[in-house]
Amino acid sequence: MGKVILASLLLSLFACHKKQEGVSKDHVTYVPINYPESNFTSVQGVRGVLDTENVYIAGTFTKPNDSTTYGFIYEGPLNDSDDIGTWYPLEYTTTQFNDVTLTSCYGPNNGPKETIQVVGSYKRNSTGHKNFGFLYEGRVNGDGTWTTIEPGGTNKDDVFDVFVHSTMGGLAVGNYDFEGYPASGFSFIYDIENRTDFTYMVDKSYTTTLYGIWHNGDAEYTLAGGFSSDETLSQAFLVDYNHKARQFSNFQAYNYKNDPRSSIITHFEGITASTDGGYNMPADWVSIEGTKQGASFVSVKRLQNGSFSEAVWKDISYPEAATTSANTAYRNNILGVYVTKDTISNTSVTSSYNAKLKLQ
User: Fold this and answer.
1) 170 vs 18, more confident
2) Considering the entire predicted model, what is its pTM?
């Protein structure tokens, strides 16, 4: 349910973008990030390139007069990337079929020997609206190995949509639902080396999403996402995970501005480590009245007892945008999409951005 609600509320997509210079607002500097000569770009994931100051940025784009939606990886500095760095179009490739209509790259990561790992989803013309999860491993240009990820245990044949959101430290996390039950939502953890997975659900939840994973070292990870229950429509959470023992600890739920009365939806879209030993998360939220949606940069510290602190919230709003969403985070940066509207022509323009925060 969380994935479906967030998709419908936050991704009013598919239009063209326009070039803009970086602007500053409320101690945040905003710059556009869009695939060259595209009419739609959605930035969805970011990871630092090993031993450099560059980043990998993952997302999707469309081109004028082309019905296919492509994935992409950008490799270069994190700034106004229209003119700096290298863009690589990616499309799910296999010898078994050639009818892929959409490739959506969500989470990039450093692979072995200067390769890259990318997770995401794809669609085929012959299977309609069904989304398949994937893992890509190889060179950044896309000529490596593409693997379909099919979670769900013994019920794989009933799984309809699969979205793999993030990967790090040999694991990937994502979500799936069952055919005929689009509001169902189950999160999973995927072991890349062993090609195995298992489902994770927050206690007493009826949907759970995992959008972010951070490898703390050895078998220790911190996961980020959201859940729905009888008490909340959507609440964000962090939880630690030991893969060797398959044990979870330090679960902590979060509401926008730390106030359950402030929102009906709060969701963490990813996670990155902060310089103080804590974590930064991109968050999307919908106000308690359901009339306003927004994005935030969220910081959480690690307490001496190992648990997570109360969150510090800094709102993100691209100047003159009707809607801003936060899709991914890197250090003190939030990346996502924003929508501007032309009231005269009644059209919308969707573009991607990077927001760099000045942290005290």
Assistant:
1) 170
2) 0.91
